[in-house]
Design brief:
Number of helices: 8
Strand content: 15-25%
Helix content: 40-55%
Order of helices and strands: EHEHEHEHEHEEEEHEHHEE
Bound molecules: calcium ion
Strand order of the largest sheet: 2-1-3-4-5
Amino acid sequence: MPKFSVLIIEDEKNIQTFMGKVLKRHDYRVLSADTGAQGLELIRSQCPDIVLLDLGLPDMNGDNIIREVRTWTSTPIIVISARTAEREKVLALDLGADDYITKPFGTSELLARIRASLRHSNRLRTDSTFYIRPYKHGEMSLDFSKRLLKVRGEEVHLTPIEYKIVAYLAQNSGKVITYASILSNVWGPYADDDNKILRVNMANIRRKIEDDPAQPKYIFTEVGVGYRMAEDEDD
Ligand code: CA
């Protein structure tokens, strides 16, 4: 197996070094850039498999890098973001970033985000039939071809809208999905931009699938941004 290459665009040296060490230890090829200009140059010349991008760079805002890169490649971009910057995260995702990770973060979280984004981009590129393979996490499974959701071996009855939400999140498991993205995928391009209908449906879904809806194990809330479904275990 050839190694996956990861480009880290981050001006804080200690964070760049920490991530580099972790990734090398887990068999990734690591490229690093301290500025946006350097980062763009490396994306063009090295075509990394994934980009980790700090938004606050000395020479430009990370948003500009996302905009620029998305004009010519769908290489996954994971934004490295400050804790309280929900609007910044949503904007980055809407511009085409695939996910974000919030500082300070741990090793396992970093690796999980990278795995989920790589898996998703590889599927889009090479395996158009992957949606047929069931999603599985813990005691929940979703068979897309039968539209069958089971928890602890029991079939869970979902309304058509609830099913669409769960299936969309499961197809993107491990990645954060914004409210706007769920609304337009489930209700179509003329969806209301009001999240209330989504929150109501999510509350109903959680009552059906979670042991304790206040402590979810399957669908997590990313405050101010959207939802993230637990990573598929079958990969
Ligand atoms: Ca920075």
